[in-house]
Amino acid sequence: PTRIIGDGGKVVALECDEMELGTPDESGRRRPVPVEGSSFQLPADIVIPAVSQEGGDVQSLMQSVTTVQVTETGMVPISGTELRGVRGFTDLLRAASIGEPVDLGERVIIIGGGNVAVDVARTIIRLGIKDVKLACLESYDEMPAFPEEVVAAAEEGITLLNGASPKRIVGKDGHVTAVEFRECLSVFDAEGRFSPVVKPDSEEMYPADTVVVAIGQTVDWDLFKGADGILETKGGFISADRETMVTNVKRVFAGGDVVTGPDV
């Protein structure tokens, strides 16, 4: 979208440009760029702006929107996450959605048991990768993902590793080669608090060329320029009312993983 077209104070259309993949940037990524002379108009009665994670900060966003949810992919607190081949899910899903080539190797392990993790796994196997494993702490029946999504993932050929607690990510020459898991006996304690219990001496290694962490998202504090004074919890998340999503900064709202933390 390039501009909203109005007539007499009423929205009548949204002007857009066609997009194509540009030249690779310093990181090797090809981001969408407008095609010159490709502008077209979409008739519209209502235009609802949706904020993406591509650029901007809270100060600039507050000029036009009233609610902001700002996150980046959360990482598991284990050794080896710095290795090449260990990545979050947001960039991967973005690349796949626009047809950008994604080099994942032949063996992929996704860590997470929610709907996002299942979505990532199904996206990857549709890229033609045969060895795709989805590992999560929960048992099959306890997985937070929708049951029908889990069933569909298994039918597509994704291997489910239930009750698998990641212990460490192993690498060679700076690149991931495997993930070591332990058997998770329970995820929550008697009071419902997140407190995984693992079985001693239950380590098992699974080879991997790529590890995708899809356990949730954490706060990207770099985007909070212009929202000075926003309260932070001891765990490093945004302090906000769980029901209303109101923070202590006017016109800044927060919800989801940036408030509750990722499902590690």
From TrEMBL:
Q: Where is the FAD/NAD(P)-binding domain?
A: 91-262
Pfam families, alphabetized: Pyr_redox_2 (PF07992)
Provide the leader sequence positions. none
A Gene Ontology molecular function term for this protein is: oxidoreductase activity
Query: What is the name of the protein in this document?
Result: FAD/NAD(P)-binding domain-containing protein
Q: Which organism is it from?
A: marine sediment metagenome
